[in-house]
Structures are given as structure tokens and as C-alpha cells.
Amino acid sequence: MPQIIIDGQYIEAAPGKTIIEAALDNGITIPHFCWHPALTVAGNCRMCLVQVGSHKKDTDGSLMFDPSGAPVVNWIPKMQIACATPVADGMIVDTVSKKTEETQESIMEFLLINHPLDCPICDEAGQCKLQEYAFTHSAGKSRFDEQKNHKDKRVPLGPQVMFDGERCISCSRCIRFADEIAKQPVLTFVRRGDKVTIETFDNTQFDSPYSMNVIDICPVGALTSMDFRFKARVWEMSFTDSICNGCARGCNVKLGVMNNELLRIEPRTNMHVNTYWMCDHGRLAPKVLVENDRISEPMVRRNGVLTGTTWDEALREAATLLQGVKAHDVAILGSAHASNEDNYALAKFATSVLKTPHVDFIKHNDPTFGDTMLKVNDVAANGIGAHSVGIHPASGGATSDQLASKITSGAIKALVVMADDVTTQSTQLAEAAASLSALIVIASNVSATSHMAHVVLPLSSFAESEGTFTNTMHRVQHFEAALVTKENERTMGLKMSRWDKFGAPNDRWTHGSRRNSRSGWRIVQQLANAMGAQWSYANAEAVFADLAGHVALFNGMTYELLDQYQGLVLGKAATPEPVGVIYESHVLKPN
Amino acid sequence: MSAQKAPTNEMQRLTFWERIYLPEIARGMGLTFKQMFKPTFTRQYPEERWEPEGSYRGRPVLVMEEDGERCVACGLCSRVCPALAIEVRAGETTKEKERFPELFEINMLRCIYCGFCEEVCPEEAIVMSKDYELVFSSQAEGVFGKDKLLVPVAQLQERLEFLRQYR
Fold first, then answer.
1. Torsion of CA B132, B138, B140, B143, to 10 degrees
2. Cα separation of A255 and A463, whole Å?
3. B79 vs A235: CB contact, 8 Å cut-off?
4. Which of A409, A453, B118, B132 registers the highest number of CB atoms within 10 A of its CB?
């Protein structure tokens, strides 16, 4: 393996790696714009220019050292770009020398010649690479007095991506992403020279299902999200690590929240799951589900009409309804949308409190959804998790397919549904469910099922609760609550952004609604206790600890380990895969 | 001669002339009489109002140009505000500066008149005015929206010139 020295640090780099990669593997970040680990090397921004040389040898062939013991270096007269120079044995690289610094300052001055000074307007401000390097690697002033070039602003490249030509520094990351990753080569440079800009080919638009990733990798604010444009400044939001619930891939995401409103979902690097990307569906769809059509309060059916009531009242009503039928007449539908914790609590409720064998969940398969990149046909986040924590029929129990006929024949008289809509299983089940003597729905969004229910218990969405999902690759991943509800109000405070943290109740900006919903495991626990059980889980972590102790596949897992290794594979908690080198295109400063 | 008893109260401590007050009253009247011929400093507020200098930090206002506010809703004032008094929500326009404040509110009950918002503003869009008379009868009234904050640039010339000296 070639041995190189970067800034005096001896590094063993795998052959074929470039200097920038070898440096990153060892925690040294060389400033760069156009380089991205997942894209081919373009080498056009010149920001990663470094001084490269080799150890000088004496006439007798021995290595030369200066009196202080440092190697004497034969520097290559011109600077080399770290992103395209492969490492060679004995290479010496200096990324912090005076010469390197002066070069970086010159490159920054060059890139800023035509870059508008509209940071106050630009959405990227606060997480902009150019802005950051202007502080750390720039002389801080320009010698350019002439008129800046004006180019097209506000050009839609596709349905989700807006392009601002003036801000573009021509790094070509988006062009390479479209060509190599999204496999939709429609972007290109036109009018090369100082008027260079990016356009789509005639009669095409950049509408790939992964198009919004270019917004994340754009080092400046040239590409902005039409969905998010101007909604908030990045420093006003809190970002919470979460897992996308759009499909069973379980892409690692960050949830951007301001004023208790979910404004933005963006990918988080996890080399084992989604690498650096996520699909546009995952950025947009879960947000709508979290914000729209939510069940606002616990409801019970009085004189045929669903009426709002208190939690105690609704839970009492649900317990009474369930106690009114025989154990074998109750069926439980867990959910592929709910977390492992929620499903585990429900499975435990079925076996130890209700003692019914009829436990199952509805599988959600959309053969049109999946693709060869990230999206998978299983459009629910946690099907594998639900099954592995015990949401499957015991001997003699009805499967979700058999439910409709069992209800029609009168074998099942009561049904508890969590986080799902029975109409997605079959219209027969939906029709049959209307004839149940008790239908208890624990759900976050209004659906046909919640309209039929006798008792509705509002469930916190994935953005409001803590838990784990098991993805299609059997990887258990931990997500945290990003939004404040009436349930978690007291524990959330410190995680929120400065605004949400320090605002007083009489400040108008703190008036984002706090939903009256609860985590699934808590609702099930309260229902179980209303029926005479003695459960005492304090938080999701306690449920998970119980789950890890009782379900063999989860043995040895804790939230701490899940966070440390970015998820653990079912049954393999003892042999975690290393996290690897995490590259984030933008580094958000802590609030 | 027996030792004089130490005075135990005010009446015993004072001399006869002091105790009858008359000379003291005359002395006080003399002082008042003398002041009547000296120049006065008292201002007959509110009939007589004080016009502050350009350096005065009165309530923060938004500068309004002919075609609307200068503010581009960058949110820096809101970020720097130590008292969390400013709330900005941005919207999009078709003008050259594509961002504008859809909502701009300063909670004058929180504002401490430090002037940080003015100092941080990259557009010279929020400045401290000479307005020092703030009256409201409820908490809600203390939150100033764009209707109260926007002031024509002509009225703020003095402050803007003062600020330019220190650029």
C-alpha cells in the first residue's frame, strides 16, 4: 500500500485512491466544490489545488532530512488538484502551506468574480460551500470593479428544481449526477466562456424521480427546491435524524423543522442503505402525510356520530368494547407503517391481554413504485419489522386475507387497527369492517377506516415519535421525534431550534400547533392497562429494550448501538458492519 | 454647673431660631426667587417635543422605497436579536430581488433598542428611528407589523447618513 504524507501525517492509502480520498479517509478535508465521492472526477473548480512533492534523495540515494528532522521535499513546481491526482508511494502533500493558501484565495477570488452578492436572498446561505470557503479560504476582498455578468435567474429545470444561472459556479456536479446517477442525461453547459450557464436539452426537462438530489449537492444556491424555496433560513430550523417512511428502503434522512412544522426532508449519508441520495417521493410525500388530514383528537361514536372526547374516556370506551366480545372474536391489525416498538406492544397486547390468535398486518406492495436505484416495491416502511416482532397469526389465527370472510361469517366481531386503512387490503374487508360490533382505530391520518370506527385514537406520525424501522435489507434503524406533540412537549425542548426553544407561549411564532396525538406503544399500553394489565414502559427505549430481550432477532440491540453503527441487521447485532467514511456535501453548523 | 444633657430628639438639637422655621422659609424663598431669573431646562412635554439627533436609537423601522420595502427577508436581524423580538417570514416576488418579507413583526415589548438588527442588516433596510413614543394598551398591540414598521426613506435620511459615517 502506498505510504504518503499529508500535512506531516503519515497515511497508508489504498492504491488507485486520489489524494482527496486518502485525506478524507483520514479525517483531513481538502476544500473542494466539484468533487463528490459518488460522481466521476471533473477537476474543473480547481479549489482542491495542493502542493505535491516527493522526498528528496541525496547523491548516495539516502533520504534527506533538514536539521529539524523534517523531510526535504522536491515540490512539483505547479500545484496539483487533489481530486484527480492518484496517490503514489512516498508522495508528500501540503494542504496548508502558504502557497496552497494563496492558491485557494486566488481560486476563490476567481469564482466570486461573477457570483452575485445576494446571500441575503439566497436559500443556500448558511449551508453554502462557497459562503463557507469565503470565510475560511478567501482573502475577504475582491479586486474586480467591473460589472458582473448577468444570466438567467429563476429557470425551472424540472418540476422540482429551480436554477439560478448567476449563482452557478459551473462545478458540473448536477450534470454529472443527471448523467451518472439519475441516468437522465438532459443537463449540459451552454455558451461556454464567461457567459457559461446550464440548460436542459430542447424539449426535455430534468424530471427524474431523483432530481432533487442536485439541490443537496449543488455547492452554491444555483439549484433550489421549488417545494422549499424561501420557507425558512437553514439556521432557523432544527434538524433531527430520522428514517424515511416512504418505502421499505428506509433512507436515512434529516427532518428540518421550524415553528413545529415539518418543512424539509433531506438525505443523511448511510453507505449501507441510501449512500448519499434519496428519492423525490421521500422528500415530498411523508411531509404531506405528517402535515395534512390528521386526526385531531380522540373520538368515540355517540348516537352514530364520531364525537371528540378525552383520552381517558376514549380509552375506557375502547376497553369496554373489547371486553364485551370473546377473546377469539377479536382481531388485531398491526401495521407495516408503524415502528417495531408500536407493533411489538400491539403483538404483546394480543398475546398477553386479549389472548387472541388473529394478529396480522396488511402488506403494501406497489409493483409500479420500485426501481433499480433506491425505491422498492414494498411501499410501507416496516413490513419486515412488523412480522419479526410478532405481528403474524398464531396457530388458528386469521391472516389479513381471511379477515373479510371471517368478519362476514361472524367469527370475528371486533377489530383493532393500527396505522392503516383496511380499504388498502380489499374492498371486501372495508365492507365487512362496517358490520363489526367494535372497530378501534389507532391512526394518524383520516381514512375510510377511521370514518367507520367506534373509537379513534390519534397516533403520532414517524416525525413525532421515537422508534425503529426494519428496512427491506433487514436493517433496524433508529429515528427520533422532530415535532412537538402534547405527549412529548416536556422532553423535546432542547432539541428544537433557538426560536422554538426560547419562545414564550405568548410569542406568535410559537403558535405552530401541538397535536394531541400519542406514540403507538403508549396508546397500546394505556389500552392494556385500561383492561387490567400492569404495563409500565416509560419511553420507546424501554419498549425496545423489552423487545430486544424477547425477540431473538433483536438480541443485543440498543438505541445507542443503532445510532453508533447507523443501524444493525436483524440477528447480527454482535457483528456490526463498520460505518465507513461519512461524506456530507454540506455541513450544517450546530444551532 | 451641671453637665449639659445630650440632646435626645430633633426638637432639643435645634436652636430656637431654627425651631420657629421662619428664617429658613425666608432663605428657601430667596433661593426660589433667584432661580426665577436663571435660564430654564424643563421642557413642556408633550406640547414641546424633543427632536433627537441622527445618532438616537428609537424604535426600529423598515425603510420603504418608492417600489416597496428594501427588506429581502434574509432573517439576519431575527437571528442576531438578543431578545428574540423579530419574526420574519419570506415570500417570493417576481421583482429583481426575488425575496420579500411576507410577514415582518417586531414585538416591541421584547425589543431592547440595542440596534443589532440595524448593524447586521445587509440591505440597510431596518434602521433605528427617532420615534421614542410607544404606547399600547394590550400585549397584542405591542407587536408591530409591516403596517406600523414601514417608513418612507425620506423620513429616515438623517439616520442613514449617520450610519454611512461608520461604514
1. 10
2. 8
3. yes
4. A453
Q: Does A56 touch chain B (CB under 8 A)?
A: no
A120–B122 CB contact, under 8 Å = yes
Question: Looking up cell 439616520, which residue turns up?
Answer: B159
* Cross-strand bridge partners of residue A225: A161
Asked if A505 is an interface residue toward chain B (Cβ–Cβ < 8 A), one would say no
Rounded to two decimals, the ipTM of the complex is: 0.84
Question: What is the architecture, at CATH level 2, of domain B60-164?
Answer: 2-Layer Sandwich (3.30)
Q: Tens of pLDDT along B134-156?
A: 999 998 899 999 999 999 999 99
| Of residues A118, A229, A508, nearest to B87 (C-beta) | A508
**Per-domain boundaries in chain B:** 60-164
- pLDDT average, residue stretch A337-347: 96
What's the confidence (pLDDT) of residue B155? Answer: 94
Burial group, residue A104, by CB count within 10 angstroms (0-12, 13-18, 19+): buried
pLDDT in tens, A280-329: 999 999 999 998 999 999 999 999 999 999 999 999 999 999 999 998 89
pLDDT grade for B117, boundaries at 50, 70 and 90: very high
Q: What is the pLDDT of residue A242?
A: 96
Q: Touching check for A163 and chain B: CB below 8 Å?
A: no
Helix (H) or strand (E) holding A540: helix A540-550
Of A175, A166, A225, A224, residue with least CA distance to A197? A166
* Residue type at position A451: H
Euclidean distance between CA atoms A113 and A138, whole angstroms:
13
Which of these, A313, A471, A299, lies nearest to A387 by C-alpha position? A471
Alpha carbons A5 and A289: distance in angstroms, whole number: 51
Tell me the mean pLDDT in the region B24-45.
Answer: 91
Is B35 exposed, middle or buried (CB count within 10 Å of its CB: 0-12, 13-18, 19+)? Answer: exposed
